[in-house]
């Protein structure tokens, strides 16, 4: 049981919610900026694919190291954020994120790839702390019955950030701040601007009045959560999902640049990234409605309306002709049909989405031209519900082990660091197009988990009854 104690009366926190929404947007924006940095720094430093993938390795590796450290400290000393306060946690997270952005300045001045990687690692550590503290704040900034609505809105703006980052961020690096003969300087000013924004947000949070609250949930020692097969296998599912999603996004611009695909340079190819990450926004809106308690007519009508509006936004910022994106319209229609087949059952919908994702990736491996390109881009919309569905299935029935299980699932973001690196090594040895067999295998595992997971779910009480001695020994 989680008990939250507010030390100030509930009131309208619209200003605070607005500032937090900006935070969610920036965090999505900068995460997706890595997809721009990969082909850019690969060309500047003449890197192999596996070396370029160290960008994702360092950034998402920070998530693993940060969350693991937090988890271990929590087991020994209690929840650190509960001691320093969630507001101070956000300020520290913003300061660390700002430091990571400012480190791009010396990295570009000295033209050292290792400094870029160090900057990304520090930025990832800042985002890890923000991940831990931001969501609880959004949930308490208003009436409890509307908490889910506020969280969905903030997450939607996170997806908006990932959608426009390839367009706007790519414009800043490849065009606005691009100087012929000094290409490495193009990242310097944009990241200094981002760092300044983080520092300003930290100052704003210092003076914004926010409710203080304590989490009095029991801290369970040991690794008892791994006794639940839906969690242990779900941790692997999160690892493979995040890894596949980030790997595809990381290589997409280079894939579009292949001669047998489209042969487009980075400055043009970046515009197509908006459809990959924008698909996640479309799918998240639809997924939230699909699993809601609305009657079917309202549910599907709203899904269609939000899909049209989201697609219109993506189309308007991409600058790509409508006839060029017609194949994507067909993929969006396929997404709606698969939602219908899922029948609002999380495990079933997860498995079906993974089947389509695996099929699209395989087509991209075997095909050529624009159809292969759109097949790979289309995977984005089918990635949309995977995090939420896997997470929900994995922690079901954990009882007092829920927080411990959640921490383990966050650590599984390590997949975003390792899977792109593995694909990079394969791209260097067997070719870029065939290297997408790595995310293909990831989706095969998710298919297994989606179909098999309903048989795995047990409850905390059932484990205590079946194996009381084992569970108690794990909890000591």
Provide structural commentary.
The protein is mostly helical and 476 residues long. It is built from 21 helices and no strands. The protein has helices at 14-44, 49-52, 54-77, 80-84, 86-102, 104-110, 113-140, 147-176, 188-207, 229-256, 266-290, 296-318, 326-342, 346-366, 369-383, 386-395, 402-411, 415-430, 437-452, 460-466, 468-475. α10 (229-256) runs antiparallel to α19 (437-452). Residues 1-10 and 464-476 have low confidence and may be disordered. Its main location: membrane. This is Glucose/galactose transporter. The chain crosses the membrane at residues 17-41, 53-73, 85-106, 112-135, 156-177, 189-208, 228-253, 273-291, 300-319, 325-342, 349-366, 372-395, 407-426, 432-452. One of its GO terms (cellular component) is plasma membrane.
Q: What is the helical fraction, as a range of percent?
A: over 70%
Uncertain runs are 1-10, 464-476
What is the level 1 CATH name of the largest domain? Mainly Alpha
Fraction of residues in β-strands? under 5%
Specify the biggest β-sheet.
Answer: none
How does the overall form come out from the CA principal axes?
A: globular
Rg of Cα set: 22 Å
Give me the CATH architecture of the largest domain, please.
Up-down Bundle
Arithmetic mean pLDDT:
82
| Euclidean distance between termini CA atoms | 20 Å
Number of helices: 21
Whole-number total of structural domains: 2
What structural category do the secondary elements indicate?
Answer: mainly alpha
CATH homologous superfamily name of the largest domain?
MFS general substrate transporter like domains
Write down how many β-strands occur, each being a DSSP E stretch of 2 or more residues: 0
CATH level 3 topology of the largest domain: Growth Hormone, Chain: A
Could you give the order of the helices and strands?
Answer: HHHHHHHHHHHHHHHHHHHHH
